[in-house]
Specification:
- The complex is a heterodimer.
- By secondary structure, chain A is mainly alpha-helical.
- Chain A has one domain (56-186).
- In chain A, 84% of the residues lie in helices and 0% in strands.
- In chain A, helix 2 (35-168) runs antiparallel to helix 3.
- By secondary structure, chain B is mainly alpha-helical.
- Helix content of chain B is 69%, strand content 6%.
- Chain B has seven helices and two strands; from the N terminus they run E-E-H-H-H-H-H-H-H.
- Chain B has helices at 29-47, 56-76, 84-101, 113-135, 153-200, 202-207, 209-245, and strands at residues 13-20, 23-28.
- Chain B has a two-stranded antiparallel sheet.
- In chain B, strand 1 and strand 2 (23-28) form a beta hairpin.
- In chain B, helix 2 (56-76) packs across helix 7.
- The radius of gyration of chain B is 22 Å and the shape is globular.
- The termini of chain B are far apart.
- Classes of the chains: A mainly alpha, B mainly alpha.
- Chains A and B meet through helix 2 of A and strand 1, strand 2, helix 1, helix 2 and helix 3 of B.
Chain lengths: 187, 249
Amino acid sequence: MAESHGGAKGPAAGAHTEAEGGHGGGFPPFESSTYASQLVSLAIFFVVLYVIVSKLALPKVGGAIEARQNKIEGDLTEAQTLRDQSDAALKAYEGELASARSRAQAIGNESRDKANAQADAERKILEEQLAAKLAGAEKTIAATRATAMSNVRGIAADAAGQIVQQLTGVVPDAASVSAAVDASLKG
Amino acid sequence: MKIDPIHQFNIEPLFTIGQIGNHTIAFTNSSLYMLVAVAIISLLMLASGTQLVPGRLQSVAEISYEFVASTIRSTAGSEGMKFFPLIFSLFMFICVSNLVGIIPYTFTISSHLIVTAALALLVFFTVLIYGVAKNGLKFFSIFVPHGVPVYILPLVMFIEILSFFLRPVSHSVRLFANMLAGHIALKVFAGFVAMLGFSLGALGWVGGVLPLALTVALYALEILVAFLQAYVFAILTCIYLNDAIHPGH
C-alpha cells in the first residue's frame, strides 16, 4: 500500500511514503504534508458550496416553501370568505322564512276573523228571521186557541140549554145558562 | 490477515494541481469526496422540484431547510438567519460527507483534524469579526458574566476568555475524534470477523458471529453519530454566533 501513493506529491512525497511504511509514526490525520492539499480543496469546495447554497439552493427551496405558505393562507382566506358568504345567505334565508311565516299567520288570522264575523252576521240574521217566524206562529196559535175557546163556550152553552130543556122541558134563560157555563168553565 | 484500521484515513493524491511555496497542491481522495459532498448537496437542493405538493427529493430538501432554519431561530433568534447560508452549508457539508464516509471503502473528510479545524476556525473568526463589527467593544462583555462577585471576577473572566479561545479546539476535535474513533472501531470489529475466520477455520467463522453483530450495531450507531455530529457542529455554531449577535446574554 505504500507504493499506491508514491511520487505524485513532489517534495512532500518522501515523508508521506516513509510514514506509510509502518503506520506507527505516520498517523494520516497528523501528516502535515497533506495539510496544504486538504486546506486548498476544502477552501475551494466550501466556497463553491456556500455560493451554490446562498445564491441558488436556499432562495429556491425557501421560495417553494413560502409559495406553499402563501397558497395555503390564500386558500384559507378564500374559504373564510366563502363561509362568511354562505353564513350571510343562510341568515338571509332564515329571515325571509320567518317573515313569510309571520305574514302567512297574519293572513290566516285575518281571513279567519273575517269568516267568523260573516258567519256571526249570517247566524244573527237567521236567528232574527226564525224569531220573527216563531212570534208569528205563536200569535196564530193564540188567536186560534181564543177562537176555539170561545166556540167551546158557545157549544157548551147550547149543549147545556138543550140538556136542561130535555130534562125539565123548560127552555132555560140564555143568560143564566151562559152564567152557569162560565162558572163551570172557571171551576 | 492484518488489521490495519488506520489505512482508511490515508490521503492519496490523485493528480497534482499546482504548487504553493514548497507545498505541492494535489487533488486527493479527500478532495474527491468534498466534490462528491458538494455535488450531492447541489443535486438535492437544486434538482428537487418546487411543487406545491413536494415529492420525496423535494421533501428531503425542504426538511433540511426547515431543520437548519428552526435550529438557528431557536438558538440565535431571527437575527441569526443572516448566517443561514453559512450554517446550512456547514451542516449539509459535514452531514453528507459523514454519511458518504460511512459507506465501506469510502473516505471520510471530517476524520482529518485539519479539515474540522479549518471549519471551526472559520466559525471562530466569523463570530469574532462579526461580533466586534456589530457591537464594538461591547462584544467583549461576553467575558464578564452578570452577577459575579467582584473578588472572583478576574478568575471568572480568565476562565471565560480561555474557554472562548478554546472553542475552536473543542469544536473541531469533537467532530474529528468522533468520526475517527467510530471508523477505527468499525474497522477493528469488522477485521475480527475475517481474522477469526482465516486463522481458526470453521470454528473461527462461527465465533465471528459476535464481532459481526457488534459491527452491525456499531454501524447503526455510526450512522446516528454521522448525523448527530453534523448537528452538534451546526448548533454550536449557532450558539457561538448568538454571542456575537446578542453579547449581553
